[in-house]
Write a structure and sequence with these properties.
The complex is a heterotetramer, with two copies of chain A (83 residues) and two copies of chain B (155 residues). With 83 residues, chain A is of the alpha+beta class. Chain A has one domain: Ubiquitin-like (UB roll) (Roll), CATH 3.10.20.30. Chain A is built from three helices and five strands, in the order E-H-E-H-H-E-E-E. Chain A has a five-stranded mixed β-sheet with strand order 2-1-5-3-4. The longest helix of chain A is centred in the middle third of the chain and has 9 residues, at 29-37. Chain A is globular, with a radius of gyration of 12 Å. In chain A, 29% of the residues are buried. The mean pLDDT of chain A is 97. Chain B is of the alpha+beta class and 155 residues long. The radius of gyration of chain B is 16 Å and the shape is globular. The chains are: A alpha+beta (83), B alpha+beta (155). Chain B binds chain C through residues 15-17, 20, 24, 26-43, 92-93, 104, 106-107, 109-110, 113-114, 117, 148, and chain C through 15-17, 20, 24, 26-43, 92-93, 104, 106-107, 109-110, 113-114, 117, 148. Strand 2 (32-39) of chain B pairs antiparallel with strand 2 of chain C.
């Protein structure tokens, strides 16, 4: 499963994308954030305030409780500031 | 009849007059054209800004803007719609975003343009980083923009 | 600081891009520019229109538009405002009216442009006469436009 | 006192402007419409539905009950259709 990061989430983690293979117990977007947080200080820093983290699966916004099964690409990023 | 819809993400600047002309040329069924141009300001509050850099999520940005364009077409009787969003480094005074809406009547054109801007601000995957004398920092999202977008939610 | 306000009544067409540039050139305090272009349509409902002729009341038209421009400036934090209204004979596809509003934030620019258009429709002394195959006739005012203007009344 | 007419009011009356000298009993805009209506068929036709007639004194919109004393120029016209 490909995970991509943007803006300060990307900067804190120190990479723009990576492939991950979480265990089956990681079922939702929130689970995946929790699992990533265990991977190191830079992840813990990026996800330290889960409330402000936005997620998308395959280019569509999703909620923390959305299941990740079947996702090709999951994105994490801060609230958007376009326009 | 299909409605012309143009969505472009680009580093280059755009020409508002050309975009208006593209939507209206040779047509006599358009009574109203509204344009919104979002421009990079030199300072928010006290600090002078040297430039903004816009990061975006390629693929999702097009998809998300496309979904909102479709929603605008379903909610208002538009005769044409153009959305252009720049990315990369932009200095004060330069354009950031353009929305052009055309309709036979003005209310539809105004409302669709406002709707699209409110959604672009809060749902399109773009992030602004400011450069100033103090260094660079990511622009915070504002609750004001969230409230502006929320007023379009269908009950 | 005085806000640049341009009001012109003219027979000639106008150039929207030039009017946007006139309001924004050399400035870095403008975050939003909204334009509204009103265009002559080729038909309302079933009948094809060959042309519109706009009659106006010279002197009062400038005064009335000027009063509404002042009101817009007092209600919204605009950084610039341009209103151009044509008179004389106008064929389908041609511009009739242009409103350009500039502000640091988009809501002010959108609201001021909508306010000005609603008031121009109902309060500015212009009258449209249509030419069609059936002859010429004066366009009726619509209660819809009156309602649009009424929503800006202060309680 | 100068009176000016626009659009179909002008067409029905058959002139764009004229100078009139109403008697002192003609105090308001509505009085003036009534007085003009007596001047001939074309005036009666122009003012046959007073409800739709709009008036301005010296370039500002006024109501039927507005006094005309001191006016330099009074205008009568149909509802506006600009924009």
């Amino acid at each position: 499963m490909k995970v991509v990061y943007f803006a300060w989430v990307r900067e804190r983690i120190g990479k723009a994308e990576e492939n991950v293979d979480p265990p089956p117990a990681v079922r939702t977007v929130a689970d995946l954030i929790g699992w990533l947080t265990q991977r190191g200080e830079q992840y813990a820093h990026a996800f330290e305030t889960p409330r402000v983290i936005r997620a998308a699966i395959d280019h569509a916004h999703v909620k923390p409780e959305t299941a990740i099964a079947g996702a090709r690409e999951i994105a994490f990023f801060p609230p958007m500031t376009g326009g | 009849m299909s409605v012309p819809v143009t969505i472009r993400l680009q580093e280059a600047d755009f020409d508002t007059a050309r975009e208006i002309a593209a939507l209206t040329k040779g047509r006599t069924d358009i009574g109203a054209v509204v344009t919104f141009s979002g421009i990079c300001r030199g300072g928010e509050g006290g600090d002078a800004i040297a430039a903004l850099t816009l990061e975006h999520y390629p693929g999702m940005a097009e998809a998300e803007i496309g979904r909102h364009a479709e929603e605008a077409l379903s909610r208002w009787p538009l005769t044409g719609l153009t959305i252009i969003h720049r990315y990369g480094r932009i200095v004060p005074g330069e354009n950031i975003v353009l929305v052009v809406t055309a309709s036979s009547h003005r209310q539809a054109a105004f409302q669709a343009a406002e709707f699209l801007m409110d959604y672009l601000k809060t749902h399109a995957p773009f992030w602004k980083r400011e450069e100033s004398a103090a260094g660079t920092s990511w622009v915070d999202a504002t609750s004001h923009d969230d409230a502006a977008a929320a007023r379009w939610a269908k009950s």
